[in-house]
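Re: flavin-adenine dinucleotide structure - here you go.
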Amino acid sequence: MQANFDTDVFIVGGGPAGLAAALACREQGLEVMVADCAIPPIDKACGEGLMPDSLAVLAKLGISLEGCETGKFRGIRFLGEHDSVEAGFPSGHGVGIRRPLLHEALVQRAKERGVQTLWGARVTNISADTVVVNGGSIRARWIIGADGHNSQVRRWAGLSAGPARLTRVGLRRHFQMRPWSEFVEIYWGSRGQAYVTPVAENEICVALISRQRYLSFEHGLAEFPQLAARLSAVAPSTRARGALSLSRKLPVVYRGNIALIGEASGAVDAITGEGLAMAFRQALALGLALASGALSAYATAHRKMMRLPSLMSATMLLMDNNGGLCSRSLRALSRQPELFARLLALHVGELGLKDFGASSLFHLGWRLLLA
Ligand SMILES: Cc1cc2nc3c(=O)[nH]c(=O)nc-3n(C[C@H](O)[C@H](O)[C@H](O)COP(=O)(O)OP(=O)(O)OC[C@H]3O[C@@H](n4cnc5c(N)ncnc54)[C@H](O)[C@@H]3O)c2cc1C
């Protein structure tokens, strides 16, 4: 660390993106400080599903969820009013984990790796290489904004938030019951989706995402009668918690010595279940870029990483916005489940876009016409 700095890297926000970035920077031998205005373990409304690709990146950051209370799933099932289709992951399995438990695992690893953390500490300004936190100033060579959708670091750095292409509202709640499925189930309704993730041997997480705000969780659940019937006899184990799901792409994710990561740096719709994996991947790329002193490499990697999740997000939102297309897609996929399996393989990074290929797109288009 250079003598005139208090730390090499100062990270604003100690959520999943901030802590993952801290770990990746420590891996490169950089001194890191993280500040978050909340106190761990930090909870947030989330579907709480980690796909196999998320687990693979977490492992690269030195984090294993072995020993944590988790649920397992082996694929994804889409359920419409009349049709359903499911596919297993080509390899590995996904894990459902309560958000505070995931945060605890990240905090623990950060402690082990010597990350300095300031909890209950709000950052109120940044300028050049100085961060104002809890009324005091800290000098850092690099400043990272991991402060979520409403990033103030983004604003202070004069970086554009870009247009939010779509904002949806998410609500999640837990139910104490044995998961009935080995799949994460996604129910497609007329105004949004409900998805169910096993998060423990005897607990499930239910997340509702919609274009319109529901009056209450029960009100939203009523739009998915099949799911509501399953949950009717079970008491919820947590209160409903809400969060916004934004789809947004930033034109630029860094300026000078300031870079953005996680939701501060753009996002895809929550329905993709890729938000956390994207943040973890960005963290690895950011660590490498800071070690080499070139944030432009991070910007290039970031752009590439957003491409596929953005495409998947746009496809699912198109289905969400067009009831007819959604029913036709579900009917088409239920008649050709191998196509759904290929889409899932593409989604979790086990199949490249080139390998997915024109023939799969042709089959999908043809099936949609016939459905
Ligand atoms: C309904 C819903 C369901 C989702 N389901 C999934 C899913 O199943 N799988 C998945 O991978 N992703 C899912 N996501 C996305 C996932 O939740 C996000 O990708 C993830 O939370 C992004 O992490 P982050 O660290 O960027 O932001 P956050 O988790 O929002 O963390 C930002 C942190 O910054 C802190 N902060 C903000 N301002 C300041 C300040 N001035 N000073 C100090 N601290 C500050 C906040 O306290 C907060 O802790 C879902 C999202 C929603 C809304």
